[in-house]
Design a protein that fits this description.
The protein is of the alpha+beta class. It has 5 helices and 5 strands, in the order αββαβαββαα. The chain has a 5-stranded mixed β-sheet. Bound molecules: tetrahydrodeoxyuridine (THU).
């Protein structure tokens, strides 16, 4: 994708790669690690699957939950590492979830090769639905 790769990008990617083996992925066997940089701190997450497949939580949302629970709501960057040869991209649901906490955050992606891609969330999810749309609602019932 389109951004240059910096040393801080690679450092965040290393945190995502470090946590990836902790993923609980007995159904897909596709392990994903994520690391968010927010407020100068790092928050890690992994995918956690469930026998009711739809109850699975992605690594990115796990990391976001940890950051928010620690009091950070403005994310500078997220790194994602999955089991694919090509760098693993965040799924659509995670793109929307992350847009809440900065639609312009940097997104660093890696896989099981040395390939790394860097972009921004607004490139992955143009025109995200954000709280500004709700602020335009007057609260009155139309009917
Ligand atoms: N997965 C993630 O954790 N993040 C993504 O962005 C893509 C998919 C997980 C969900 C599921 O546990 C496994 O990868 C296969 O879809």
């Amino acid at each position: 994708m389109s951004e240059g790769i910096t040393q801080p990008d690679l450092a965040l990617l290393a945190f995502a790669r470090e946590i990836r083996p902790k993923a609980y992925a007995p159904y897909s066997d596709f392990r994903v690690g994520a690391a968010i940089f927010a407020g100068g701190e790092i928050f890690q997450g992994v995918n956690v699957e469930n026998a009711a497949f739809g109850s699975t939580i992605c690594a990115e949302r796990g990391a976001a939950m940890a950051a928010v629970a620690a009091g950070f709501r403005e994310f500078d960057a997220i790194a994602v590492v999955g089991d694919s040869d090509a760098p693993t991209v965040p799924c659509g649901a995670c793109r929307q979830f992350l847009a809440e906490f900065n639609p312009e955050m940097r997104v660093i992606m890696g896989g099981c090769t040395d390939a790394v891609e860097v972009t921004t969330l607004d490139r992955l999810l143009p025109d995200a639905f954000v709280r500004g749309y709700l602020d335009q609602h007057d609260g009155e019932d139309d009917e």
